[in-house]
Specification:
elongated; mainly alpha; 85% helix; 2 helices
């Protein structure tokens, strides 16, 4: 693996970790609001996970984070 490929791999890993951490933040916010998450709210959250992840990557890229 050359230096350019390693840099792309490292960036990909950072993006994935950022998306996971943002989703965990949303999950823990749900847990703080609803100690026992109602199933309807949990299902709504699960449907939003892809959107949250995509928007995280987009906004992090826009703001240079």
């Amino acid at each position: 693996m050359n230096e350019k490929d390693f840099g792309a791999f490292q960036l990909s890993v950072m993006i994935i970790i950022d998306a996971i951490l943002v989703n965990l933040g949303y999950f823990f916010a749900f847990k703080l609001k609803f100690v026992d998450i109602p199933m309807t709210n949990y299902q709504a959250y699960v449907r939003l996970i892809p959107w949250i992840s995509v928007l995280t990557v987009i906004f992090f890229r826009i703001y240079g984070l």
